[in-house]
C-alpha cells in the first residue's frame, strides 16, 4: 500500500507505528482514479503493543473526491464575504476558527467559534453533549454551512475536508484566513 501513497503520508504512517497519532488527508491515485487516504483512529485504546501492520486495515478509508458521491466542493470565501458575515451574521452559516486557543487569544474574526483542528480534529464526531461539554457552546448543526479559517489557509482546508467525514457536506473555506483579514482590516484604518 505504501507504494501508492506520497512520501509525506508514508512518514505519517511511520509516526503512527511509533505511537504518534496524526490526522492526515492525502490525495492518491489507483489506476488514474483519485481519492483520499484519511487516517482514522483505530479501535485499539493504545499503541503500546500495536504495529502498523495490525492497524493498517482500520486506518485507511477511501473517500472519492468527486461530486458523484454527493459531496460538493467547498464554497470559497474572500475578505469581503467574511466581512459581511462578521457584521451581519447569517443564521445558516457559521464561521469556524480552527487555530489553537493561544492563537485565538491574539485576535479573531467577530462571530467566529473556535474548534481547533490540530488539538481536536475529532471534535465534529463528538456527541452533542460531549461537544458542548468540551467547547462550551452547542455543536454546529449539519444543516448549516461551516466556513473554516485558520492563520494562512492550510489548516482550514484540511478541516473542511475532514468535516465531510463527519457528515458536514455544506462547507466553505476562507483561504486568506487570519493573515488576509488582518491585512485588509489594517488597510481600512
TrEMBL record:
Q: What's a single GO CC term here? A: mitochondrion
Report the Pfam families cross-referenced here: Rhodanese
Q: Which GO terms describe its molecular function?
A: thiosulfate-cyanide sulfurtransferase activity
- PROSITE patterns, alphabetized: RHODANESE_3
The Rhodanese domain, residue ranges? 89-186
Query: Which superkingdom, per the lineage?
Result: Eukaryota
| SUPFAM superfamilies named among the record's database cross-references | Rhodanese/Cell cycle control phosphatase
Q: Which CDD domains did the record assign?
A: RHOD_HSP67B2
Signal peptide stretch:
none
Name of the protein in question: Rhodanese domain-containing protein
| Organism of provenance | Lipomyces starkeyi NRRL Y-11557
Upper classification of the source organism reads: Eukaryota, Fungi, Dikarya, Ascomycota, Saccharomycotina
